[in-house]
């Protein structure tokens, strides 16, 4: 009877540890440093800009990175290019229609080819990318860096962990109904995206 009781306590402790190991990281950055960069390289003109209105959460277990799930959201209104006229066109109903479609998102559903080396995990993340109200299933190469006890170095007076996500991938604007087949000499159909964001898990 005593042996069974000890075994039950041990199993309970392991279950509690497994539960705690899975952490939720919040990507709404109070510093405003998180950003997504977009580039379009057409024959006549190259266009580049960024977006800083990033939010969302990711559940990540450093002991089992392959189980990661989550959703990253970019506010369409935070898309920015340096040319004022291009900025106006970018957010207009002919292009991004930011008023009608305020969010761009990627929801991770499954990780494949997961490889971990120390605090860094690389994987191909399959999920749903939604832009201008259109959703497509895509697979994106992603690098996760888990930084234990490093939150205080980014946000003073806070204890906790950080999860840094970096990704580079491309989409077609024609796939998402953004002026398909038009102005391709000046505005490339291919949009190159670079994501570099850090999420916080306070404690």
Biggest sheet, open or closed, and with what strands and sense? Answer: 11 strands, antiparallel
Share of helix among residues? 10-25%
CATH fold title: Lipocalin
**Strand/helix succession:** HEEEEEEHEEEHEE
| Order of strands in the sheet with most strands | 1-4-5-7-8-9-10-11-2-3-6
Provide the β-strand percentage band. Answer: over 45%
Tell me about this structure.
By secondary structure, this protein is α+β, with helices and mostly antiparallel strands. The protein has a single domain (23-202), classed as Lipocalin (Beta Barrel), CATH 2.40.128. Helix content is 16%, strand content 49%. The protein has an eleven-stranded antiparallel sheet, covered by helices on one side. The model is unreliable at 2-20 (pLDDT under 50).
Produce the secondary structure layout.
Layout: H1 2-21, E1 23-26, E2 35-41, E3 46-51, E4 54-60, E5 69-75, E6 79-80, H2 84-91, E7 103-117, E8 120-131, E9 134-147, H3 151-154, E10 160-172, E11 190-202
Antiparallel strand pairs: 1-4, 2-3, 2-11, 3-6, 4-5, 5-7, 7-8, 8-9, 9-10, 10-11
Looking at this protein, list some descriptive labels.
203 residues; alpha+beta; Lipocalin; 16% helix; 49% strand
Can you describe this structure in just a few lines?
With 203 residues, the protein is α+β, with helices and mostly antiparallel strands. The chain has helices at residues 2-21, 84-91, 151-154, and strands at residues 23-26, 35-41, 46-51, 54-60, 69-75, 79-80, 103-117, 120-131, 134-147, 160-172, 190-202. The protein has one domain: Lipid/polyisoprenoid-binding, YceI-like (Lipocalin).
